[in-house]
Specification:
With about 325 residues, the chain is α/β, with parallel strands linked by helices. It has 13 helices and eleven strands. Strands 2-1-3-10-4-11 form a six-stranded mixed sheet, with helices on both faces. Strands 8-5-9 form a three-stranded antiparallel sheet, with helices on one face. The longest helix is centred in the first third of the chain and has 22 residues.
Amino acid sequence: MNLLSRSAVRRPASGHSACLLLAIVLAAAIAPARAAWPERPIRLVVPYAAGGVGDISFRTISTALEERVGQRFVLDNRAGASGNIGAAEVLRAAPDGYTLLLGAINNFATNQFLYRNMTFDPVTAFEPVALLSLAPSVIAVTPNLEVHSLADLAAQARAHPGALNFGSPGIGTPPHLVGELFATLAGVRMTHIPYNGTPQVMVALQQDSVQVSFYTLSPVSPLMRGGKLRPVAVAANARLAALPGVPTVREAGFSDLLSASWQAIVAPRGTDPAILDRLNGDIRAALALPESQRRYGELGMVAGDLGRTEFAAFMRGEAQRWKKVIESARIEPQ
């Protein structure tokens, strides 16, 4: 339609017609901008050091995802403050679909209860995009401990209150919280020993300074292969492809001990829902590929497959669940 046609010039538009024409013009101006996304590479902020679980999870699907999206994803590692520095940077970014956060369970479910100086609630401060991966915890013990099941572990801890040590890379980290959850469910007391990082915990396990591990598979698999650590249960509903002979916590009678360290992608609040929905669909399609499933299985991980609404509900549930564990363990915010 030609808005400058002769009939349009002769008759002034009514108020209703003028509003309708303005709406059409605005829609025509906005639609191409939305349809053009993405016109340039997308920055993916990872709030941890390079080479971590987030990097590995994303690189597993990066090629397939970039083919679907039509642009590169550039990983930008911004470590510090248990992921809070990188998260805050994305929170301040323009909501244009070109800056995303690839965070972990810490960023979305536990940090807000562990740090006094956090100024935002991550569950409400970001737009959910997609759950990328879940790495179930593997409960394992050193070979000198006569423990071959979760029931054995509970019995040992009950018979010797406080004598069994479990290590973590710091107070409030997933291996610490899973250990506290097990102690609560089993009605036992164990001693938590925080180290400066995961490598120190692995050394302590080899030296038998700590006897129990609540880590995910990746860091402890070399010790398992070397006979330095014995897995007794996987904190998931289904057995891991990498550990088919190890029972789940449900099979072991501890169905409430479900635990996974998960990775997810979110966007700044206010990002166009059309962009978010497209990203969710493209990520899930890349995760569903047989090669992605195979690779994740080898790493002891499970690919995520949640719509955006389901993912938002998952985050809310995880935050409330781990808040209760933190309060029960009387972990004070730092």
